[in-house]
Amino acid sequence: MSLADPKAARDHARAQGGTRVETMPILPPIAEDRPDGVAAEDLLWEETIAAGGYAARRLPRGAWLRLIDKEGDACASLNIFNAEMPTERLNVADTVKVQWNAYLGAGKLLLSDMGRVLASIMEDHAGTHDTFCGVSNAIFNTRKYGDGRNSGAFPNGRDRLILGAAKHGLARRDVHPCINLFKGTRIEADGAITPIIGPFEPGRAIFLRAEMEVIILIANCPHVLDPRPDWNSTPLRATAWRGLTTPEHDLVRNATPEGLRAFLNTEDYYRR
Q1: How far is CA 213 from CA 57, 117, 159, 268, in A?
Q2: Which of 73, 89, 115, 203 is least surrounded, with the fewest CB atoms within 10 Å of its CB?
Q3: pTM of the predicted model as reported, rounded to 2 decimal places
Q4: How far apart are CA 269 and CA 146, in angstroms?
Q5: Rounded CA gap, 207 and 38, in Å?
Q6: Mean pLDDT across the stretch 10-39?
């Protein structure tokens, strides 16, 4: 069959209907391992992000997002935006300094540049995350791996985030410093940065709760300080479902004075 013939090309394309591969969104979303109490109709997103892939999704306030490092070598470079006003976005520096802690884990907040809570970390079964290093770029990957193009064999994290941003009307200038999940760093007494790269046990997970309506961007590319000479990445699974707006008695909301203030700022925004 010659695909130069439009009718043959059409028939070939239609024959692919129903084809499933591991790394693709599942529509409608289906997850047999959803947490207890989560109804099938509340699922919003089910996707496995390929090694070197990216994802972009808008999630409502109160939604939960579960990320799973399926094979132990994923790196989820995360950008978050206020979906109503994307000029408000994740501020890594404020996330660190307001909470007096650069090492994220359960109970920590992801803060915006307006002093509001974009998302809370509700559960963390990984314990290795990075707020210092950002992502690789085309120049870095070309120097290290010989190719850093989006269309090449060794795509870089920044360009993947830019592709995700474009799906929501955002541009290169909107891609800001990110947080890396599942790959960690440790700051030594002399200021040196020690990467904590793994690979780790498969199946580690982190659960986030959206405290605002948000745009989530994820790039799954090797950490910029990965010391291995080869480009290493494995699939990352994302599952999201509807949830309730955080109540006043929530333990994470009330854990610290600074965290409570950020929640009050968030609640004031939605009081309009």
Answers
A1: 11, 11, 24, 14
A2: 203
A3: 0.93
A4: 47
A5: 14
A6: 85
Cβ-Cβ contacts under 8 Å for 67 (sequence gap 6 or more):
76, 181, 182, 205, 206, 208, 218, 236, 237, 238
Q: Is the dihedral of CA 94, 165, 71, 143 positive or negative?
A: negative
The whole-angstrom separation of Cα 161 and Cα 171 is 10
Q: Label the pairing between strands 64-69 and 236-241.
A: antiparallel
Contact 79, 161 (CB under 8 A): yes
Partners of 121 in beta bridges: 208
| 58 burial type by CB count under 10 A (0-12 exposed, 13-18 middle, 19+ buried) | middle
120: left (phi over 0), alpha (psi -120 to 50) or beta: beta
The DSSP code sequence of 164-176 is HHHTTT--GGG--
Q: Tokens 């440790």 map to which residue? A: 186
pLDDT digits (tens, 9 = 90+) for 179-213: 999 999 999 999 999 999 999 999 999 999 999 99
Q: Report phi then psi at 161, rounded to 5.
A: -65, -35
Are 175 and 161 in contact by the 8 Å Cβ rule? The answer is yes
Taking CA atoms, 92 is separated from 4, 9, 18, 78, 97, in Å, by 50, 48, 41, 10, 9
The shares of helix, strand and coil residues in the chain, as percent rounded to the nearest 5, are: 20, 25, 55
CA distance 131 to 171: 23
Say what the pLDDT of residue 220 is: 98
Q: What are phi and psi of 104, to 5 degrees?
A: -75, 150
- DSSP for 236-264, please give it: EEEEEE--PPPPTT-TTTTSSHHHHHHHH
